[in-house]
Amino acid sequence: MHQNTAPSERRRHRSKITAEALHLQLKACVERFGLRHMILVDHSGHLMTLPEKQTEAERNLGAYVPLLYEANSRAERKAISRLLRQDLPWLTHSRLTARRICIEGESAYVCCVAPKGVQADLAIAQAIAGMRRICSGLEFSLV
Q1: Is 2 domain-assigned?
Q2: 27 pLDDT above the threshold of 50
């Protein structure tokens, strides 16, 4: 795990704009844990952070996250994973981890792409803790 972002440094990079604050939270987790990507998407696969800060890879990945998470069978997940890796070949040697959360009654997904061996579950847990702080005035829960 990378712990290269000191708390005082992170506190200087905050925003009162929710979408920007969420982007900064995800970016801090990417840097802290050595992730390739961390995204927050809504139930339809659209990224919930600032559009101008999104990469093409993140937008493409976001489209697949709800499909993978909500797949009803192992065969369905395997088929979606195969398509995902065809469309995004850079995922081949990575681990994709996602958790569903609820913001204002709507499903959303936190997803990270990590090199093998990186503590993806811990990274997502820390991201969710930060998102709870950012969304403190909103209804926010794990599903």
Answers
A1: no
A2: yes
Tell me if 21 sits within 8 A of 134, measured CB to CB: yes
CA distance 74 to 98: 16
Q: Left, alpha or beta for 47 (phi > 0: left; psi -120 to 50: alpha)?
A: beta
pTM (global) more than 0.85: no
State the CB neighbour count (10 A cutoff) for residue 76: 13
Tell how far CA 31 is from the center of its chain: 13
Angstrom distance (rounded) from CA 33 to CA 13: 18
Tens of pLDDT, residues 64-120: 999 999 999 999 999 998 999 898 888 878 889 999 999 888 899 999 999 988 899
CATH of the domain at 75: 3.30.450
Is residue 123 over pLDDT 50?
yes
User: Is 101 inside a domain boundary?
Assistant: yes
SS3 105: coil
pLDDT more than 90, % of the chain: 52
Residue 42 lies in a domain: yes
| Token pair in block for residue 59 | 């937008």
